[in-house]
Specification:
Elements: E1 2-12, E2 34-43, E3 46-52, E4 63-66, E5 71-74, E6 76-78, H1 90-97, H2 102-107, H3 112-120, H4 124-140, E7 143-149, H5 156-172, E8 176-184, H6 195-212, E9 218-223, H7 230-242, E10 246-251, H8 259-265, E11 270-273, H9 279-285, E12 291-294, H10 296-302, H11 309-314, E13 320-321, H12 335-345, H13 350-357, H14 359-363, E14 382-385, H15 393-396, E15 403-407
Parallel strand pairs: 1-4, 1-5, 6-7, 7-8, 8-9, 9-10, 10-11, 11-12, 12-13
Antiparallel strand pairs: 1-2, 2-3, 5-14, 14-15
Helix pairs in contact: 4-5, 5-6, 6-7, 12-13
Bound molecules: N-(iminomethyl)-L-glutamic acid (NIG) and fe (iii) ion.
Fe (iii) ion binds next to loops.
């Protein structure tokens, strides 16, 4: 199957064949290379050739698409989601409106424990159907690669069930999918007074089984006051490394917890959330390969402070943006909406936001060799937008879908 797209107003996020871009950082984040009035040829799902319409070759494609007035760009790479879950938590949403905090709801046995209860009552087939619907929805909004976490099982069978569902999504769709074991998301009720007992269960039973079946690529921990301490996190990540699971962790969402520092120390692929980031966290990130991943959708939905994106970028670091799609703190995986939030609330330029959710998102899932830019030989997972005057129109036109078609 080959596709030729012609008359593209702007082919955005292109990368020359000789480049080997893994991440875009600092001042470079404002640069989003483009070819105006362009064409691109896709063959068997791979970018075969592209260039300017001034010298478009004769190509006999199975499908030719006229993209007059439209932008073609890499599909979004959403490197942090909890897309597999059983049911919504709209009741807690109302509780928060009426004054309860996210942490208070969690202390009362709601929050993640509420999701765990519902997940363990839901059979695998139903869980798969729900999750597939969500995945199809985010694809229609431009997502082409996604990371999916466990963390609502909080027991061997529940965690395995979530990760099997994620694996099935990977097998049955054309979306690039990576998975993370997040058994260390909260303490199940029966371990409330025996926290080390649950950590031992993760290390001695859940992790070996999950790794043994190849169900997870990464190891995640919710490193936060009232959840998993820095020492617990280090122990869990060390255990993950023994099974080849690189860390990708929840850090510094609600407090200056030391999560960023332990993530860097443990060579995490990414540290995610980062509402609470100051000079010490930025210093720790400098010179590391750990991607600072910002989740402004969760800050928006919880009504907490936004991440200091400018401070991080202006320190020369890269920034990645991901949705955090989950039923508690961010029940949306819409990357276009996230882009609007990043621009309006984090003061990121549209180009910075796009780099953060394409090439840097790909890097945060180790997919940078296959996705994230439009480059010869990379996978052709692309967005064709609706006609628009400029790419800045996408985050400007917030709440509307600017994506006309997603090619996977
Ligand atoms: O990334 N912060 C921890 N975990 C999720 C939310 C989980 C939930 O509330 O269900 C997050 O925000
Ligand atoms: Fe999360």
């Amino acid at each position: 199957m080959s596709i030729l797209i012609v008359n593209i107003k702007s082919l955005l996020g292109v990368e020359a064949a000789h480049e080997a871009k893994r991440v875009v950082a600092g001042a470079d984040m404002k640069l989003l290379p483009e070819i105006n009035n362009a064409w691109v040829h896709i063959d068997n799902g791979i970018v075969k050739a592209f260039g300017s319409m001034e010298n478009v070759p004769e190509i006999n494609a199975d499908e030719t698409i006229d993209a007059t007035g439209k932008i073609v760009m890499p599909a979004f790479c959403d490197s942090h989601t909890h897309l597999v879950f059983a049911k919504s938590r709209h009741g807690e949403f109302v509780d928060r409106i009426n004054g309860l905090s996210y942490e208070e709801i969690a202390r009362r046995g709601g929050g993640i424990l509420n999701s765990a209860r519902m997940l363990n009552e839901t059979d695998e087939a139903e869980l798969f159907d729900n999750s597939l619907q969500r995945l199809e929805q985010v694809v229609s909004q431009g997502t082409g690669a996604i990371e999916i976490k466990s963390g609502y099982g909080l027991c061997l069978e529940g965690e395995m069930k979530m990760l099997r569902v994620a694996r099935k999504l990977k097998e049955q769709t054309k979306v690039a999918i990576k998975t993370s074991l997040l058994a260390a998301h909260a303490y199940p009720l029966e371990y409330k007074e025996n926290k080390q007992g649950y950590i031992n269960l993760i290390i001695n039973e859940i992790l070996p089984k999950v790794a043994g079946e190849g169900l997870a690529d990464y190891m995640d921990v919710f490193c936060e006051q009232g959840f998993f301490s820095v020492d617990d996190t280090e122990r869990l990540l060390e255990a993950g490394w023994k099974y080849g699971l690189k860390p990708k962790i929840h850090a510094n969402q609600l407090h200056y917890s030391g999560g960023v520092q332990v993530g860097v120390k443990m060579n995490a692929l990414s540290v995610d959330h980062l509402e609470c980031v100051g000079d010490a966290e930025i210093e720790a990130l400098k010179g590391s390969n750990t991607m600072p991943t910002l989740l402004p959708g969760a800050a928006f939905f919880l009504g907490i402070q936004y991440q200091p994106a400018r401070k991080i970028i202006d320190a020369g670091l890269p920034v990645c943006l991901a949705s955090d799609y989950n039923p508690g703190s961010c029940p949306s995986g819409n990357m276009q909406l996230l882009m609007s939030l990043a621009c309006t609330q984090l003061k990121m330029n549209p180009e910075e936001a796009i780099n953060a959710m394409t090439i840097n998102g790909a890097a945060a899932m180790e997919l940078d060799k296959e996705m994230g830019t439009i480059k010869l030989g990379k996978k052709a997972k692309l967005i064709i937008t609706k006609p628009m005057p400029h790419i800045a129109f996408m985050p400007y036109d917030y709440g509307n879908n600017s994506v006309e078609r997603v090619i996977l």
